[in-house]
Amino acid sequence: MSDVEYIKSFLTIYQDFPKKGVAFCDIFPLFRNPLAFEALVTHFVHHLVSDVIPNSPDKKIDVIVALDSRGFLLGPVIALRLGAAFVPVRKRGKLPGECERAAFEKEYGTDEFEMQAGAIVPGQTVVIVDDIIATGGSAAAASDLVTKQGGKLLKNIFIAEVTSLKGKDKLNTPTYSIVQVDG
Ligand SMILES: O=P(O)(O)OC[C@H]1O[C@H](OP(=O)(O)OP(=O)(O)O)[C@H](O)[C@@H]1O
Ligand SMILES: Nc1ncnc2[nH]cnc12
Questions:
Q1: In a designed cystine with 99, which of 52, 108, 114, 176 is the match (CB 3.0 to 4.6 A)?
Q2: Residues 6 or more apart in contact with residue 88 via CB below 8 angstroms
């Protein structure tokens, strides 16, 4: 079994959760199994080291940005492996001090994201990580926040992509998902 098939075997689809019509992709079984979690993180790091860092201007990634809340299961672990900074994008009202803000629509609602002003130094290279890309609204808003701070966004990476929702089309930066699921 390839590592992609192995990772995919832990994802579970729940029909009509949290709303009718949504095929919800549950990532938590991956985190219950330490070998699966290790395979997941190693797969991401290998992708970044072989496909993203060689094409980065300074041959490095400065910042990993992850999205509230399931992205936080991945962002700090990947950042630590790469020796990069970790910066959170949080739902509105959770971060202290001056923040940049971006509103967005997602598969089952609307929301607002924030990032602390100055969290990214202009010119730093950035990768955004999250568990799922569905409509792409969350990742597009996070991309706006990175760009507002002067970050150079290299790639968006996800465990899984709900292909029928075409979220990648909302993003101006290359996107990688390990697994593709039908919505
Ligand atoms: O591509 P989109 O349509 O924007 O949807 C994807 C986003 O939705 C989920 O987060 P959610 O807002 O449900 O929050 P959670 O991570 O706290 O569960 C998921 O973790 C992504 O961040
Ligand atoms: N289909 C889906 N599965 C899991 N998380 C999601 N977030 C938005 N859409 C989702």
A1: 114
A2: 65, 66, 68, 72, 75, 95, 115
Is 182 exposed, middle or buried, given 0-12, 13-18 or 19+ CB atoms closer than 10 A? exposed
Q: Nearest residue CA, atom 1 of ligand 2?
A: 24
d(CA 180, CA 139) in angstroms, rounded, equals: 17
Q: What is the 115 CA–ligand 2 centroid distance (Å)?
A: 22
Which residue in 5, 32, 38, 70 is the catalytic one? Answer: 70
Domains annotated for the chain, with CATH where assigned, are: 3-181 (3.40.50.2020)
Q: Is 70 a catalytic residue?
A: yes
Give me ligand 2 centre to Cα 134, in Å. 6
The predicted-structure confidence for 46-61, as pLDDT tens digits, reads as follows 999 999 999 999 999 9
CA of 58 relative to ligand 2 center, distance in Å: 34
In 56-179, alpha helices (H):
75-82, 137-148
pTM over 0.90: yes
**Position 183 pLDDT exceeds 80:** no
Query: Which tens digits make up the pLDDT trace of 137-182?
Result: 999 999 999 999 999 999 999 999 999 999 999 999 999 999 999 8
Binding site membership of 23 for ligand 2 (Cβ less than 6 Å): yes
Q: Is the pLDDT of residue 109 over 90?
A: no
